[in-house]
From TrEMBL:
Its cofactor is pyridoxal 5'-phosphate. It comes from Saccharothrix variisporea. This is Glutamate/tyrosine decarboxylase-like PLP-dependent enzyme. The keyword Lyase applies. InterPro entries: GrpII_AminoAcid_Decarb (IPR050477), PyrdxlP-dep_de-COase (IPR002129), PyrdxlP-dep_Trfase (IPR015424), PyrdxlP-dep_Trfase_major (IPR015421), PyrdxlP-dep_Trfase_small (IPR015422). GO terms for molecular function: aromatic-L-amino-acid decarboxylase activity; pyridoxal phosphate binding. Keywords: Lyase, Pyridoxal phosphate. It comes from the Bacteria. Belongs to the group II decarboxylase family. Sphingosine-1-phosphate lyase subfamily. Pfam families: Pyridoxal_deC. PANTHER family: PTHR42735, SPHINGOSINE-1-PHOSPHATE LYASE 1. GO terms for biological process: carboxylic acid metabolic process.
């Protein structure tokens, strides 16, 4: 056997190449409360329940109680009533999947079920539609505010609609959709309305000017909220809330069609470690409502400072009117992909987002409590990065190469040709990325969405080979 300390040393060495998960320098993917001791508490709670199996709550009543208490906390925060029920899932995507599944299976007589959503809704809903054979009706949003259009959403509802989706807020731009009129339109047609509050559900209740979005809004039938985002729990926990048990029931799966135990699942998983639920429960208990109010106010204040600073930089503009702790900005005279590289060189990660309809190529920021106090450092480095990108000019990709990529048909290309394209984009070999990604992002931006998807799927296959 390899000594335990040697194994841990090897793991630490591997982690050295990762983006930092603490300190506020990675403005996507991770959420840092900056509270001392919180990671240790979560790790210890996780270890105490890691071997517990959530497959059978009657065998492990501690896990049942933990999950019920976590759900109750989320329900109280989000305007739930005594009828509100919920489930702890592995993350926002699973919560969204189950919301779509429950809606589909509650309307089994619909021949071609569809879901109506704004084009800014999270891709998890497209994934759910792909998995469960549901048609997506993506409705254009306001081209300036990026909010869902209530009239257009209402007009898109028809006899095949099983679910209407709104965001609180949308990931790309951080804006909250007008939930009330859309939920009312759904209720008028007898259709469920799901609020995707995965990223905002633990912030918006504490935001003084947040628009209404929770169960207090008539017509809202389900809400998803992630605990591993702004509840600052470790990765692997989200909550899907339903307004009542009848709405949740189709989400469950049971099968007695084999000689073993009767399978009974509340989520897409069967065996589930109790570790994530225990860690989330411990974090929620430790921080408490007053603590979360303080953390939310801290993150919101940091977001305001950063937003005002971004808008003060020549050539940059924030997209839409962000309501929470997310924002996206674009540039009029500088390549945002080059800006992202320059920020990375200064030890910041900002997330590139490709153009889609009225939303131009931009950089996304997820601001957390850990960014408080370092706003001016971030903004100084952003100003320097914009100046450097302006001096360097846009990514150097020959126009004929861009035109070639734009004309490709992903369905007609062979694996060998895909390999050549990946290599040309700097994504070949063993999946090692170049230090600077502006050229790669420029080529991916030039590709039609279907080609971009195929290229990245091929690259993912390389990574996991």
């Amino acid at each position: 056997m390899i000594p335990a300390e040697d194994v841990l040393s090897e793991l630490a060495a591997l982690r050295a190449d990762d983006l930092p998960t603490h300190g506020g320098r990675t403005l996507a993917y991770v959420y840092d409360s900056a509270l001392p001791g919180l990671d240790d508490l979560a790790a210890r709670a996780h270890a105490m329940a890691a071997s517990v199996n959530g497959l059978d709550p009657t065998a492990f009543p501690s896990l049942l109680r933990l999950e019920n208490e976590v759900v109750a906390t989320a329900a109280r925060l989000l305007g739930g009533t005594s009828d509100t029920v919920g489930t702890v899932t592995s993350g926002g995507t699973e919560s969204c999947l189950l919301a779509v599944l429950a809606a589909r299976d509650a309307a089994p007589t619909t021949d071609a079920p569809s879901i109506v959503l704004p084009e800014t809704a999270h891709a998890a809903f497209h994934k759910a539609a792909h998995y469960f054979g549901v048609r997506v009706v993506a409705v254009p949003v306001d081209p300036k505010t990026f909010r869902a259009d209530p009239a257009a959403m209402a007009a898109a509802i028809d006899d095949t609609t099983v679910l209407v989706v709104v965001s609180a807020p949308s990931y790309a731009h951080g804006v909250v959709d007008p939930v009330a009129p859309i939920a009312a339109a759904a209720a008028e047609r007898g259709v469920r309305c799901h609020v995707d509050a995965c990223i905002g559900g633990w912030v918006l209740p504490f935001a003084p000017d947040a628009p209404p979005f929770d169960f207090s809004v008539p017509g809202v039938t389900s809400i998803s909220v992630d605990l591993h985002k702004y509840a600052y729990a470790p990765k692997g926990t989200s909550v899907l809330l339903h307004a009542n048990a009848d709405l949740r029931r189709p989400q469950y799966f049971a099968s007695a069609a084999w000689p073993g135990y009767t399978m009974l699942n509340s989520t897409t998983q069967s065996t589930r470690s109790g570790g994530p639920v225990a860690a989330a429960w411990a974090v929620l208990r430790h921080i408490g409502e007053d603590g979360y109010r303080s953390l939310a106010h801290t993150a919101l204040a940091a977001t305001r400072v950063i937003r005002e600073g971004v808008e003060a930089i020549e050539g940059l503009r924030v997209l839409g009117e962000p309501d929470s702790t997310l924002l996206a900005f674009t540039a009029d005279d500088v390549d945002v992909f080059v800006v992202a590289d320059e920020m990375r060189a200064r030890n910041w990660y900002v997330q590139p987002q490709f153009a889609h309809r009225s939303s131009p190529a931009n950089l996304h920021l997820t601001v957390t409590a850990a960014n408080a106090g370092a706003e001016e450092v971030f903004l100084a480095d952003l100003r320097a990065s914009v100046d450097a990108a302006r001096a360097a000019g846009p990514a150097d990709v020959p126009a004929e190469v861009v035109a070639f990529v734009q004309g490709l048909d992903p369905e007609a290309l062979t694996p060998q040709e895909f390999a050549g394209l990946l290599a040309a984009a700097g994504l070949g070999g063993a999946g090692v990325l170049p230090e600077r990604m502006a050229v790669v992002n420029t080529l991916l931006a030039a590709a039609r969405p279907a080609l971009r998807e195929r290229l990245l799927v091929e690259f993912l296959g390389i990574l996991y080979s």
